[in-house]
């Protein structure tokens, strides 16, 4: 048997298309909320693979499910169905407003499907003039050409013009501004209950309720992008449940597979028939391996103990971060919900979020950014209290360094 190819961080620069700028170490092992690099250095994982590893690394029950399914059936293609995907669909339907589910491989694909459904539903029922999509400034919905156009961050889209048309952006949390652009030509409004990449900015309940009313008034579909907020991240199974606003379409991914790639679009019977055989599809979406893993992840998270535990862990983080901020006044605001937390840097430290996360890496903790001015935490939903305390102690050392 050949020895595996030796790799270092330099290998990334030598062999990979440079769309990322990864840390200068390579992680090789994970268990729970801890990971280790090639040199054996340990890190507390407060990033969770960008809100993906909702049950941490190598969760024993998820691992067992993966191994069991790997011994049965991996992939079939969409000319055939399979047992795990049907069971997962029923789990999602039973737990949400949805009647039907479409499975894919990522959040971007789920949002692509949602936007295509909205356009086609409007075409079939109202004609070609009803094609406008309303989205929000600083939103993030994926990296396909359609979803990056719907996202409200020009830095991600401006180099790929001409972009798909018929998309209007308006300020987030500004209902009056939204009311000015949502009209009879609007086929859909797409919104994140908490803007993740855009700075961990929660929607005002009245804003989302107002969007629901505007969509109903103008015959538009309301799409909730819950790729980052879904599957327990906010302490509710899906964030729409805490806002008392039910969307027409919901997208979910990230935590759904607990680390295994899977995405889904949830909708109602009324809308689902719009996408008839051949109108949309995906080769890998809904494969039995991904669906089996997601089914186990979903069943473990969709319990009162885990969801209540998220709220408890939120408080552990808020208390610890406030203590850090009392000693080193660096954050203007700490916001978010559940275990999607954003620490907004004050004006004296503007633009230094990336530098802080790099110092945190050196101290043995992994965190994220949400733009240049926000440090973001999206850890495992079941992270132990000891790991929270130790991770925040390491993070405090990083903050002390940047404040010195």
TrEMBL record:
<dbReference type="InterPro" id="IPR017652">
    <property type="entry name" value="Ac/SucOrn_transaminase_bac"/>
</dbReference>
<protein>
    <recommendedName>
        <fullName>Acetylornithine/succinyldiaminopimelate aminotransferase</fullName>
        <ecNumber>2.6.1.11</ecNumber>
        <ecNumber>2.6.1.17</ecNumber>
    </recommendedName>
</protein>
<keyword id="KW-0457">Lysine biosynthesis</keyword>
<dbReference type="InterPro" id="IPR049704">
    <property type="entry name" value="Aminotrans_3_PPA_site"/>
</dbReference>
<keyword id="KW-0028">Amino-acid biosynthesis</keyword>
<dbReference type="InterPro" id="IPR005814">
    <property type="entry name" value="Aminotrans_3"/>
</dbReference>
<comment type="function">
    <text>Involved in both the arginine and lysine biosynthetic pathways.</text>
</comment>
<comment type="pathway">
    <text>Amino-acid biosynthesis; L-arginine biosynthesis; N(2)-acetyl-L-ornithine from L-glutamate: step 4/4.</text>
</comment>
<feature type="binding site">
    <location>
        <position position="283"/>
    </location>
    <ligand>
        <name>pyridoxal 5'-phosphate</name>
    </ligand>
</feature>
<feature type="binding site">
    <location>
        <begin position="107"/>
        <end position="108"/>
    </location>
    <ligand>
        <name>pyridoxal 5'-phosphate</name>
    </ligand>
</feature>
<dbReference type="GO" id="GO:0003992">
    <property type="term" value="F:N2-acetyl-L-ornithine:2-oxoglutarate 5-aminotransferase activity"/>
</dbReference>
<comment type="pathway">
    <text>Amino-acid biosynthesis; L-lysine biosynthesis via DAP pathway; LL-2,6-diaminopimelate from (S)-tetrahydrodipicolinate (succinylase route): step 2/3.</text>
</comment>
<keyword id="KW-0963">Cytoplasm</keyword>
<dbReference type="InterPro" id="IPR050103">
    <property type="entry name" value="Class-III_PLP-dep_AT"/>
</dbReference>
<dbReference type="GO" id="GO:0009089">
    <property type="term" value="P:lysine biosynthetic process via diaminopimelate"/>
</dbReference>
<dbReference type="Pfam" id="PF00202">
    <property type="entry name" value="Aminotran_3"/>
</dbReference>
<dbReference type="GO" id="GO:0030170">
    <property type="term" value="F:pyridoxal phosphate binding"/>
</dbReference>
<feature type="binding site">
    <location>
        <begin position="225"/>
        <end position="228"/>
    </location>
    <ligand>
        <name>pyridoxal 5'-phosphate</name>
    </ligand>
</feature>
<dbReference type="GO" id="GO:0009016">
    <property type="term" value="F:succinyldiaminopimelate transaminase activity"/>
</dbReference>
<feature type="binding site">
    <location>
        <position position="140"/>
    </location>
    <ligand>
        <name>pyridoxal 5'-phosphate</name>
    </ligand>
</feature>
<dbReference type="InterPro" id="IPR004636">
    <property type="entry name" value="AcOrn/SuccOrn_fam"/>
</dbReference>
<dbReference type="GO" id="GO:0006526">
    <property type="term" value="P:L-arginine biosynthetic process"/>
</dbReference>
<dbReference type="InterPro" id="IPR015424">
    <property type="entry name" value="PyrdxlP-dep_Trfase"/>
</dbReference>
<dbReference type="GO" id="GO:0006527">
    <property type="term" value="P:L-arginine catabolic process"/>
</dbReference>
<comment type="similarity">
    <text>Belongs to the class-III pyridoxal-phosphate-dependent aminotransferase family. ArgD subfamily.</text>
</comment>
<keyword id="KW-0055">Arginine biosynthesis</keyword>
<dbReference type="GO" id="GO:0042802">
    <property type="term" value="F:identical protein binding"/>
</dbReference>
<keyword id="KW-0663">Pyridoxal phosphate</keyword>
<keyword id="KW-0032">Aminotransferase</keyword>
<feature type="binding site">
    <location>
        <position position="282"/>
    </location>
    <ligand>
        <name>N(2)-acetyl-L-ornithine</name>
    </ligand>
</feature>
<dbReference type="InterPro" id="IPR015421">
    <property type="entry name" value="PyrdxlP-dep_Trfase_major"/>
</dbReference>
<dbReference type="InterPro" id="IPR015422">
    <property type="entry name" value="PyrdxlP-dep_Trfase_small"/>
</dbReference>
<feature type="modified residue" description="N6-(pyridoxal phosphate)lysine">
    <location>
        <position position="254"/>
    </location>
</feature>
<dbReference type="GO" id="GO:0005737">
    <property type="term" value="C:cytoplasm"/>
</dbReference>
<keyword id="KW-0808">Transferase</keyword>
<comment type="subunit">
    <text>Homodimer.</text>
</comment>
<feature type="binding site">
    <location>
        <position position="143"/>
    </location>
    <ligand>
        <name>N(2)-acetyl-L-ornithine</name>
    </ligand>
</feature>
């Amino acid at each position: 048997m050949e020895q595996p190819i030796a790799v270092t961080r330099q290998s990334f620069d030598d062999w990979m298309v440079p769309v990322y700028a990864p840390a200068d170490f390579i992680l090789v092992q994970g268990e729970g909320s801890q990971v280790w690099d090639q040199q054996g250095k340990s890190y507390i994982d407060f990033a969770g693979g960008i809100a993906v590893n909702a049950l941490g690394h190598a969760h024993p029950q998820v691992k067992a499910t993966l191994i069991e399914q790997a011994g049965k059936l991996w992939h079939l293609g969409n000319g055939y169905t399979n047992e795990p995907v049907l069971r997962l669909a029923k789990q999602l339907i039973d737990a949400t407003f949805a009647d039907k589910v479409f499975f894919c491989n990522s959040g971007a694909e789920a949002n692509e499907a949602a936007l295509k459904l909205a356009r086609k539903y409007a075409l079939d029922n109202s004609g070609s003039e009803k094609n406008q999509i309303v989205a929000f400034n600083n939103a993030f919905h994926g990296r396909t050409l359609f979803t990056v156009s719907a996202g409200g961050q020009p830095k991600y889209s401006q180099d790929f013009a001409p972009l798909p048309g018929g998309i209007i952006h308006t300020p987030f949390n500004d209902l009056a501004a939204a009311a000015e652009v949502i009209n009879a030509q609007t086929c859909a409004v797409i919104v994140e209950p908490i803007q993740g990449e855009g700075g961990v900015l929660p929607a005002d309940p009245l804003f989302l309720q107002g969007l629901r009313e505007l969509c109903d008034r103008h015959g538009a579909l309301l799409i909730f992008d819950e790729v980052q907020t879904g599957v327990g991240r906010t302490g509710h199974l899906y964030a729409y449940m805490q806002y008392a606003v039910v969307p027409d379409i919901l997208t979910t991914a990230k935590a759904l597979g607990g680390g295994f790639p899977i995405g889904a679009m949830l909708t109602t019977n009324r809308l689902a028939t719009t996408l008839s055989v051949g109108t949309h599809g995906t080769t890998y979406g809904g494969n039995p391996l991904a669906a089996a893993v997601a089914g186990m992840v979903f069943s473990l998270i969709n319990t009162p103990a885990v969801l209540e535990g998220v709220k408890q862990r939120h408080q552990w983080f808020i208390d610890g971060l406030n203590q850090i901020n009392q000693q080193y006044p660096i954050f203007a605001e700490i916001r978010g919900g559940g275990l999607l937390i954003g620490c907004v840097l004050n004006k004296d430290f503007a633009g230094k979020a990336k530098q802080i996360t790099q110092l945190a890496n050196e101290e043995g903790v992994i965190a994220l950014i949400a733009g240049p001015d926000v440090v973001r935490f999206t850890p495992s939903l079941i992270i132990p209290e000891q790991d929270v305390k130790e991770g925040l102690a390491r993070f405090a050392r990083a903050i002390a360094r940047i404040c010195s």
